[in-house]
Amino acid sequence: MSDPGVPAPQPPTPLVEIRDERLGAVRLLVKRDDLVHSDIVGNKWRKLRHLLADARERRARRLLTFGGAYSNHVRAVAAAGRLHGFETVGVIRGEERPFNDGLARAVGDGMHLHYLDRATYRRKHDPDVIEALQGAFGDFYLIPEGGSTVHAVAGCAELVDEIAEPFDVIACPVGTGGTLAGIVSGLPPGSRALGVSALRGASSLETDVHDLLVRSRGRDPGNWAIDHRFHSGGFARSTPELARFVDAFRARHALRLERVYVAKMMFGVYAAVASGEIVPGATVVAVITGRDDAVAS
Ligand SMILES: *Cc1c(COP(=O)(O)O)cnc(C)c1O
Known about the structure:
Elements: E1 15-18, E2 27-31, H1 43-57, E3 62-67, H2 72-84, E4 87-93, H3 101-108, E5 112-116, H4 118-122, H5 127-137, E6 141-143, H6 150-161, E7 169-174, H7 178-185, E8 192-197, H8 205-217, E9 224-227, H9 240-253, H10 262-275, E10 283-287, H11 293-296
Parallel strand pairs: 2-10, 3-4, 3-6, 4-5, 7-8, 7-10, 8-9
Antiparallel strand pairs: 1-2
The chain binds pyridoxal-5'-phosphate.
Residues 42-44, 72-73, 146, 148, 173-180, 258, 261-262, 289-290 line the site of pyridoxal-5'-phosphate.
C-alpha cells in the first residue's frame, strides 16, 4: 500500500481525554480513528487494509461489493479502488434513484453502480445471483456487505494494539459487527468491549460477532456485549434528544460526532455512566469510527 500518490494513512491515531463533569469519576478517552486516512475514513480503512492486500496477492483486478444507497462501506471501497488501482462495482439495494452525495462520490471515484431489486438483493450471496454478476462484470474479488471478513477483524484488532494506556471498557458503534469483533479479538486481559447498535431490531448481531470471532481466532472470549437501546428509531434515524446531545458535545469538546453511528455510541456511553453500568473510577476508550460528510469533503 505504498503507491506514489496514495495519501498516507496515519496510525497510530491520537488518544485524547474528554474532560466532562457529567462523567463523574469515569475517565473517558476517545480514539480518533476518524483521522486515520483522508479518503478512506475510520473503521473502513481498518477493515479494508488487509483485504486489499489479499486482493492484490490474488491478482484481482476488480472488487465487487454490496450495500444500501447510503452505505459508507460502498463509498470506501470506491475510494480504495481509485487509490489502489482496482476497478470497482457497487451492487446497490433497491431501485435506481437520483444519486445522493455518497453515491455521487463513489461514481466520481470510478465505481460502476449496479442496482438489484430488494428480493434479489436478499439472495445476493446465492450462487445464481453471483454467477449473473460474473456474467455481467467478469471475475471479481467479492467483498461482503459491510466488509466484515476475517481481514476486517485483523485490521480492527490493530487499533486496540495502538492504545498504550490501560483501560477497562472500549466502546464502538455496531453496524454489521466486524469492527466490534476485531476490537474484541485485540482486547488485553481484564478489559471488555461494549458495542452500541445503530440499527433497530438487529437481533442476529450477537451471533454474527460470535461467528466472526470463531472464524478468525478460533474462539470467542466472551468479554463483550451489544447494547440495543440507543438506535434512536433505526438506521440513520435520529431523535431531538440525540441531536441535542451531538450539539452539546460539539460545543463542549469541539468534536463533531458522526451522526449515523458515532453519536449513538457516545450517547450510549454517557447513559451507561449515568446508570452505573460503567462504574466510577473506570477508564473508557470510545472509538470514533468515522466522521460526517460535511467534514470529510
Ligand atoms: C460502517 C461504520 C460502522 C459500522 O461498522 P461495522 O463493522 O459494520 O459494525 C461504524 N461507524 C462508522 C462511522 C461506520 O461508517
